[in-house]
Structures are given as structure tokens and as C-alpha cells.
């Protein structure tokens, strides 16, 4: 019974509802869209911290033998927290989308409908696809196709969530009107650093770890792995590269804007 009550199917929706009740009392001027967005981001950060902690434990426990070493969290976290969170988060993202457009006065957003759901899926297609892919690929691989091997690599995948709290903090700071403060700029740097290390560089690291275990150089590891493994890695890595490019572009625009704001008025030059 305690596993059911402590599982993500109860914890994450419960936290979301709690934040939706508490935030309007603290920030009385916030709209429904503001409250839902920040509530979603806070729950997302909590899940990310849990996943990061689980990943660190699994990776540290399975470091000596990345193929055979086992840790119960590699399976249990996916079942009790990973899958419930991904399912909940699709619904929470839809609510955030719905309230954002409802506040803007769009006629079709006066009530929930297939039209609003379809609009959400089209606008957030890559994120929705990412969540569905994790539900339909990561869960079966974790439970049925690993042959009780590779907990180390499941732990590494948990570590992709390291950047999420920083991404969420950036959105919350914007919501609070603090996008010009040094905290937001420092947080932007942490977003880029953690995203690159834990969502992009992590994949070469996993390949290197596999090669180190089998005595293979990094460039030969893909040829030693099943084609399905390489394809799965590419499918997970591709959207990360796309999002990282978007983050870099956004960071560059903010940098250019801050430079423009600090430049002397009228284009004055030193004599």
C-alpha cells in the first residue's frame, strides 16, 4: 500500500494540485496561466531532483561492472516515478497550454475540446513525442529487453534530468519579472552547461564506458552494439541536439541584447 501512496501516480498530481492552491494566495495578481505554468515547473524540478539522485546512486553502485552490476532503483524508479511522471506531465503541459491561450482570449479555448488538444499536440509536437517515446521505449527496455543487464546505463539516462531544474528556474524567474537580474543570467549559463554535459556529452560517455568494459576504443563501440541500440541512442540524442541549438540561439540573443543595453546612447565614441 505504501508503494502506491508514495508512487508518482499520487505524488506528482498531488504536488501539482497543492501548488495550484498555494501560489494564488502568495501571488494574488497571477493569472490561471501563470499559476499552472509555475506549478508545472515546480513539479518538474522535484521529479528532476529525484531522478538525478537516483541516477547518481545507480551509476555509483554499478561503476565497477557497467554491464552486470545491478541496483533496484534502475527498475523501480522507472516503474513508480518515471512512467507516472511522463504520463502526468503530458496532461500538465496541456493544461499550461490551454490556460495560456485562454487568458489571451482565444474563442476556441473557452472550454476543453478535441480542437484544443489537437492545437496543443501540434504546437508541442516534439515534447509530446519525446514523452511518448520514453513511455513506449524506455519502459519496455527497462523491464523486458535488458536481460537484467545495464543498470549503469539506465542510471546515466536518469542523469539527463540534471538540467531541468535550471530550465524551470529560468521560466519562473521570468514569471517573477527577474529576467534582467544577474541570477537569471547565471542560471542561463548553468542551463547551457548542464544541458550539454548531461544530455549530449553523456552519450559519448556511455559509449566510452561500454568500450572500457570490453576493451574497445570509442570509435569501434557502435559497431559492437546491436543496430537497435545505436538507433535508440540517436533517437534520444537528436531532439537534445535540436533543443541545445535553440538554447544557444536564445542565449546569444540575450547576450546581444544585454550588450546593446550597456552600450553608450547615440553610438558615442571615445575621442
Name the helicity range. Answer: over 70%
Query: N- to C-terminal separation?
Result: 77 Å
What shape does the CA trace take?
globular
Number of helices: 12
DSSP strand tally: 0
Strand content: under 5%
Pattern of helices and strands: HHHHHHHHHHHH
**What's the pLDDT, averaged over the residues?**
88
Which structural class should the secondary elements be placed in?
mainly alpha
Describe the protein's architecture and organization.
With 271 residues, the chain is mainly α. It is 76% helix and 0% strand. The longest helix is centred in the last third of the chain and has 36 residues, at 227-262. The radius of gyration is 21 Å and the shape is globular. The chain starts with a helix and ends in a 9-residue tail after the last helix. The relative contact order is 0.10. The model has no long low-confidence stretch (mean pLDDT 88).
Amino acid at each position: 500500500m505504501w508503494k502506491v501512496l508514495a508512487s508518482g501516480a499520487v505524488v506528482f498530481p498531488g504536488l501539482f494540485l497543492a501548488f495550484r492552491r498555494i501560489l494564488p494566495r502568495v501571488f494574488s495578481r497571477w493569472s490561471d496561466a501563470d499559476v499552472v505554468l509555475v506549478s508545472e515547473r515546480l513539479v518538474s524540478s522535484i521529479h528532476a531532483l529525484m531522478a538525478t539522485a537516483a541516477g547518481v546512486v545507480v551509476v555509483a553502485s554499478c561503476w565497477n561492472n557497467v554491464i552486470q552490476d545491478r541496483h533496484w532503483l534502475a527498475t523501480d524508479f522507472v516503474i513508480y516515478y518515471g512512467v507516472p511522471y511522463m504520463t502526468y506531465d503530458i496532461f500538465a503541459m496541456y493544461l499550461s497550454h490551454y490556460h495560456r491561450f485562454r487568458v489571451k482570449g482565444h474563442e476556441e479555448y473557452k472550454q476543453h475540446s478535441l480542437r484544443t488538444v489537437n492545437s496543443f499536440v501540434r504546437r508541442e509536437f516534439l515534447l509530446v513525442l519525446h514523452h511518448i517515446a520514453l513511455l513506449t521505449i524506455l519502459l519496455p527496455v527497462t523491464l523486458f529487453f535488458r536481460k537484467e543487464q545495464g543498470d549503469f546505463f539506465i542510471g546515466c539516462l536518469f542523469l539527463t534530468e540534471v538540467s531541468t531544474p535550471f530550465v524551470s528556474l529560468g521560466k519562473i524567474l521570468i514569471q517573477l519579472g527577474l529576467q534582467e537580474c544577474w541570477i537569471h543570467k547565471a542560471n542561463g549559463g548553468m542551463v547551457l552547461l548542464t544541458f550539454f554535459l548531461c544530455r549530449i556529452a553523456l552519450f559519448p560517455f556511455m559509449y566510452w564506458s561500454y568500450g572500457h568494459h570490453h576493451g574497445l576504443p570509442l570509435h569501434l563501440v557502435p559497431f559492437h552494439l546491436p543496430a537497435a541500440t545505436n538507433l535508440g541512442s540517436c533517437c534520444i540524442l537528436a531532439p537534445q541536439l535540436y533543443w541545445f541549438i535553440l538554447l544557444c540561439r536564445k542565449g546569444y540573443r540575450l547576450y546581444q541584447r544585454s550588450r546593446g543595453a550597456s552600450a553608450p546612447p547615440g553610438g558615442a565614441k571615445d575621442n
